[in-house]
Write a structure and sequence with these properties.
This protein is α/β, with parallel strands linked by helices. Helices cover 59% and strands 13% of the residues. The longest helix has 19 residues.
């Protein structure tokens, strides 16, 4: 079984995924990085040249490939839950952990991240900072439905999140 990390941008999926992978001695996969590698261009370039649908299509093919893996820690893109097939496949192949985050924390983390513009193109016409609250609110039910466990990254550090994931997944043998 794999461990899938889902959640909005800047919730900590990659940082937690790398730490958890090291702790468990399992391979780590970041699906956004896999999409970039597969497309041969950044996420911003994919979106600007071909649109979000093209990105989501590549993302789905990457998720489809992850179900063939076993005992991996997988950090997904923030919108992976928009496709019900992705959610179904992740749940079938592993344990899905939702890393919750507040809009304020997302804003702070995005502002502090020098690669935000390259890795995180705007999701709506309003722009990245203004869209955070609206997109988070619209996706919350999808994250909630997809996740086996939800953890708040605003109040928990990486080590605490990893411990809670281990406690939960060892019971479920993920």
């Amino acid at each position: 079984m794999n461990i899938y990390l889902i959640g909005y941008r800047c919730c900590g999926k990659t940082c937690v995924g790398k730490a958890l992978s090291k702790l468990l001695g399992r391979p780590f996969l970041d699906t956004d990085a896999a999409v970039v590698q597969k497309a041969g261009m950044t996420i911003s370039e994919i979106v600007s040249s071909s649109g979000w649908k093209a990105f989501r299509d590549i993302e789905k093919s990457v998720i489809d490939q992850t179900i063939l893996l076993n005992h991996h820690v997988i950090a997904t893109g923030g919108g992976v839950i928009l496709n019900p097939d992705n959610v179904r496949n992740m749940k079938k192949a592993g344990h899905v952990i939702w890393l919750r985050v507040s809009p304020e924390t997302v804003r702070a983390r995005m502002a502090a991240d020098p690669v935000t513009l390259i890795q995180r193109p705007d999701l709506t016409a309003t722009g990245s900072m203004d869209e955070i609250e609206a997109v988070l609110l619209s996706r919350q039910p999808l994250y909630e439905k997809a996740g086996h466990l939800a953890l708040d990254t605003d109040i928990l550090g990486i080590d605490a999140i990893c411990r809670k994931i281990l406690e939960n997944t060892q019971q479920g043998n993920a």
